[in-house]
Amino acid sequence: MLKVRKNKVELKDFLDHLNRGLAVIGGSEAHLFMHKVSQEALKITAELNNTYHTPEEIRSIMSELIGNPVDESFAMFPPFHTDCGKNITIGKDVFINAGCKFQDQGGITIGDGSLIGHNVVMATLNHDLSPENRGTMHPAPIVIGKNVWIGSNATVLAGVTIGDGAVIAAGAVVTKDVPANTIAGGVPAKFIKKVDGSKEEK
C-alpha cells in the first residue's frame, strides 16, 4: 500500500510504489497522486512544446520535468510528451527526436549514447485484463541500454529491456527483451540479424 505521510502522498513514496511493480488501483491514493503528477507534467511539456527554445533551455526544462539534471550532452527536438516525467532517467550523449511520447510511470531508463527516433512511444503501464478491474494499472520498467538506436514510429512496451548496441527497426512493436548488438523489427518485433551483419542460424 502507498505510504501517506501527514495526510499527503510524497513523490518519493509514489515512485517507490511504482518501481516495486505494485498495481495502481483506480480511485486509490496512488491513482489520485498520479493525476496530480500528470498535471505538472502537462504544464511543463506545454512550455517545452509551444515556443522555440535554445538547446540550453530545452535541457533546463527537461531537468525540471524529470526532477534531475540532464547532462550537457543531452539533446532533443520537441515536441515531446509525457504524463509523468518523474520516472525517466537519461544518460549522457542521448538524443530524442521530435514527436516522442513517454508513459514513464513504470520507469524509463535510457543509457549513454542512445538515439531515439521520431514518434517513438514507450509505454510502461498495462491496464488489468479483467473487465471488472480495467481501471487498475500495472507498472513495469523499460530499460534502454547504451548506444541503442530506436527507429521512427517504434513502440516499446512495459517490462522490455533493450541490450547495449541494439537497433530497433522503424515501426517495430517491441513486446519482449532484445539482446545486445542485434537488430529487431516487425510487429511484434523479432530478431533480424546481429549488428555485425551475421544472420541468425536456421
Q: Give the radius of gyration.
A: 17 Å
Extract low-pLDDT stretches. none
What structural category do the secondary elements indicate? alpha/beta
Shape verdict: globular
DSSP summary, beta strand count = 18
* Main beta-sheet annotation: 7 strands, mixed
Query: Distance N terminus to C terminus?
Result: 48 Å
Task: Explain what you see.
- 21% of the residues lie in helices and 25% in strands.
- With 202 residues, the protein is α/β, with parallel strands linked by helices.
- Strands 1-4-7-12-15-17-18 form a 7-stranded mixed beta sheet.
- β17 (182-185) and β18 (190-194) form a beta hairpin.
- The longest helix is centred in the N-terminal third of the chain and has 21 residues, at 29-49.
- The radius of gyration is 17 Å and the shape is globular.
Short key terms for the protein model shown above:
single chain, 202 residues, seven-stranded mixed sheet, 3 helices, 21% helix, 25% strand
Topology:
Layout: H1 11-19, H2 29-49, H3 55-66, E1 75-76, E2 80-82, E3 88-90, E4 95-96, E5 100-103, E6 108-110, E7 115-116, E8 121-123, E9 125-127, E10 137-139, E11 142-144, E12 149-150, E13 155-156, E14 161-162, E15 167-168, E16 173-174, E17 182-185, E18 190-194
Parallel strand pairs: 1-4, 2-5, 3-6, 4-7, 5-8, 6-11, 7-12, 8-13, 11-14, 12-15, 13-16, 15-17
Antiparallel strand pairs: 9-10, 17-18
Helix pairs in contact: 2-3
